[in-house]
Amino acid sequence: MLAVERPSQHPTFQTDYFMPAVPDRSTFESMYAAGAPWDVGKPQKPFIDVADQIRGSVLDAGCGTGDIALFLAGRGNNVTGVDYLEEPIRRAKLKAAEQKLAVTFLVKDATKLSEWTERFDNIVDSGLFHVFSDDDRKKYVAGLATVLKPGGRLYLMCFSNDEPGTDGPRRVSKQELRQAFAAGGEIVFIEPSRFETRPDLKDFTFSPGGPKTWFATIRRQ
Question: How far apart are the first and last CA of the chain?
Fold first, then answer.
C-alpha cells in the first residue's frame, strides 16, 4: 500500500492558534484545549453511510475523542481507537464509560503502526492522513498495510485540493491518494464529500457547507 508520491504544497493556517499545515503536538494540544474544529460530537456522515459495510475488528486511526469508534462499537464491532495525544483519549474513555461501550482506546503514534502486532478487518481515518509531512505519510501508509488484513478495507476522509483558501490542513489531490496506496492497495472509490465542523467556528473560513474533502475506500490486496 506504499508508493512514492510527489511532494504537495503545504498551505498555512490563518487563525489565533497559528496552525501550520503540518502541525506539531503542541498545536493539536492547543486545539483540543480551545475546542477542536473537527470535534463535532458525532461521526462524519460518510462514515455513517458506509457503516453497514464495516464488520469485524476496526482500527480508528487518529480517533480523537472517539465518536466514530463508539458509533461502530455500538453496531457490534470490536473497535480500537488510537491517538497520539493523551487528552482526546482521556475524553474518549469517559464517553465510552458513559455510553457503556467496550472500546479499547490507546495513546499511540500512527506513524509507528508497522511495529504493532495487532491486525484489523477494517481501518477508519477521519482527518488523519492530511496532517502528515510527506515522510510521515509514507510511514503511516506502510503501517496501515501492516495492520490491515489482506482483503480488509480502509475508509479514509481527507481535505481535498478543491477546497479554496489556506485555512485548515494541507490539501490532498485525488492523484496523491492513488499514488500513496498504489502498491498493494485497490482503490474501490474516491468521491467528493465535506467535513462537518463545529458551528461556532470563528477563526476558520471554509467553503459554504463545510470544507471540501475526498472520501475513499481502499482494499488491501
Answer: 9
